[in-house]
Automatic annotation (TrEMBL):
Belongs to the Cyclase 1 superfamily. It comes from Exophiala bonariae. This is Cyclase. One of its GO terms (molecular function) is arylformamidase activity. One of its GO terms (biological process) is L-tryptophan catabolic process to kynurenine. It comes from the Eukaryota. InterPro entries: KFase/CYL, KFase_sf.
Amino acid sequence: MSDLQLPSWKNLPPVKGMPHGCAWGLFDKEGIRDEVGTLNLLSPETVLKAREEIRAGTSVVLNWPIDHVHEPGFGRIKPVINITDWRAKGSSWYSYDDEISINTQSGSQWDGLRHWGHSGTGLYYNGIHHDELLQTDRIGTDHWSKRGGIVGRGVLLDYVAYAARHNIAYDPMSRHRITLDVLKAIAVEQGVTFRQGDILLVRSGWIRWYNEHSPEERIARVKNGSEYVGVDGSEEVVEWLWDSHFAAVGGDAIGWEAWPPQLPWCMHDFILALWGMPLGELWDLEALAAECERQQRWSFFLTSAPLNTPGGIASPPNAIAVF
Ligand code: UVW
């Protein structure tokens, strides 16, 4: 079967009351409202083609340790891991449990479709208003589980390596923008050509900065910071993302796009609210980048099994890249 035929950015049909570029309705089938947006592009044919990436037998986990970010910003709670010693509590068995409390936005995550509504209207993917969202479990991360998780071909664009090759000095804790011409130049230098349904990962250097700095510096620039490296929020990037027909996008940056977003080109608005596309943040791409260098290949088979949370907003990706 051939790829799903989608209109180009310029030909996206108008949606009443919404700006140009809204994909609501495109994935609806036989009058049934769609719940999973661009994940519809992960067809069985796309997955079967992606398995051709498995040639070396190596794999890399893309979740950062669950206690990172240690001291999150934006008022989010710190991750907590508590161990229960059942033996100490009088059990005759030798046994431990662990209890984990996290805000799903504080570490490696997929932003789900219930995380972010369009800034101008308060409408989430496929037209659900913010004030109605909690009365339904529609467009939750559990719908990703129901469809079989997120499986396809991952492609890494490594901006850290590109910046080093081209003597570009930048501070990941500033609103440094990775522009479209640079994304395209990285793809050329890495020998990457995209296919419909690819899962695009961008390594910005955010996590490398975090790994290299002290707890005090992290508190100053992350917990109390407000500007971060990321993909440029611009019309040309939005057009390119849509016309590439990615199934999902992600990366190591805290907001994926250069933060804070600037309207009208807030990538969260387009990616999550208008397209229904999962948006990955704070993925640990350090070992992945090293493996790509070793293999001299920036594409791989990717699996992700997000938490099966009813009405889920976001989830650790539980993603693995297989070479
Ligand atoms: C940030 O926290 C920067 O973005 P999000 O709310 O998408 O996690």
